[in-house]
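Justification of resources, computational component.

The compute hours requested in this renewal are based largely on the per-chain cost of generating structure records like the one below. Each record pairs the submitted sequence with a full structure-token output. That output is archived, and it is also reused by downstream analysis tasks.
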Amino acid sequence: MASAKSPLVLENYINGQFVPCSSYLDSYDPSTGEVYCKVPDSGREEVEAAVKAAQNAFPGWSSKTPQERSKIMSKLADLIEEDLESFAQAESKDQGKTITFARTVDIPRAAYNFRFFSSSILHQTTECTQMDHMDCMHYTVKAPVGIAGLISPWNLPLYLLTWKIAPAVACGNTVIAKPSEMTSVTAWMMCKLLAKAGFPLGVVNIIFGSGPKAGDALVSHPEVSLISFTGSTLTGQRIIERSAPHCKKLSLELGGKNPAIIFEDANLVECIPATVRSSFANQGEICLCTSRIFVQKNIYQDFLRRFVETVKKWRVGSPLDPTVDMGALISKEHLAKVKNYVKKAQAEGAHILCGEGIDSMALPATNQNGYFMLPTVIAGIGDDSCCMQEEIFGPVTCVTMFDTEEEVIRRANGVKYGLAATIWSRNVARVHRVAKKLQSGLVWTNCWLIRDLNLPFGGMKASGIGREGAKDSLEFFTEVKTITIKH
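The structure output for this chain reads:
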């Protein structure tokens, strides 16, 4: 990567060409606090150029067979895997996540997204019915929608960008994607592989820049047929407003305030390390992370003691150190925001059991100005606290006690979000009963973050609109037409 003296300068990727921009945004290395990259500050002009490229590419790409598109996507997956270490190093530096997480989660999944949809597109079927008494036959066909506008967040940069690009192009759409301006490097690196994989000019266009400028231009463009967005609920609401005049198809994966419900019969040997991981993996910067832990009264004290002991063993340090468990948070502003939630909890009389303001953190000299924070556990906090109601999106989790099953279901559902939940219990009947009553799009039992990409992913309430997954993504990125033939 570039040194602090000569920052890496990214360029937009439009119609198969890297195109410089007239103005740039600073991008920081979260582990040092230094500017190390310049990201295009794109706007309407760049989006308009990308739209023209995508329009020109659409007839040719949409007319290719699924087999032809599948071959190109599989080749791109191969190329990403061949360069996995370079991508992992870049993702760790750009986002602040540990190199271990980037190597084992982010980049392998980015490649797998293309491989998965390159396969699933080959196994799609359509419907056919007959009305013999009317001498009619009905059948359906699925057609690509057109230009897909894809906006991905900063927490899992290439992982979530490819989760959108792969099904979009698999279905025959052309795309204009905008990664977060804070984590753009791996998307730029992937652009270098597109032509080698065989993507025709204009099929995949990447525009870099901020949400209010580049993102707004993309969302509001009348020729962009659909928008897939992952990010905050507030931004999702803005996208709904800006796209409404054009009646665009929308898929929105938004915030979460995910509960873990730990019943008295839980296997704590498995539950505690898994709940520590679900709370603090990727610095707590995953929409699926646990931020509210409900523990049944009889085991509350034992759980709390063992949980805090385990959390204190987590190491925070340089993201490039393969032995650390947590790296740096994404930005100086986000770090301040997360720390402020802890201050608010203290002001409300909550107990900070470990982490922020309690324990000391030893960082290497080169990381002294980075955006680091210890994993923090809060107890003695009310359900109406902002720490129990709002998405913190950092290494902070709240632990509280409950008595009955009915009580914990009501309290777990007592937030505006409904993305994910976890249940820990050996009682199979209880697990099924509680899972059905939780207002969550995903419910894990005695595990966390085990995903089958064939199945739907998405949230209820303020956690989003629509679902993603093999069937759901392919339905979203196509239009279904019913054709009736009278014979």
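The mean pLDDT is 97. The first helix runs from residue 44 to 62.
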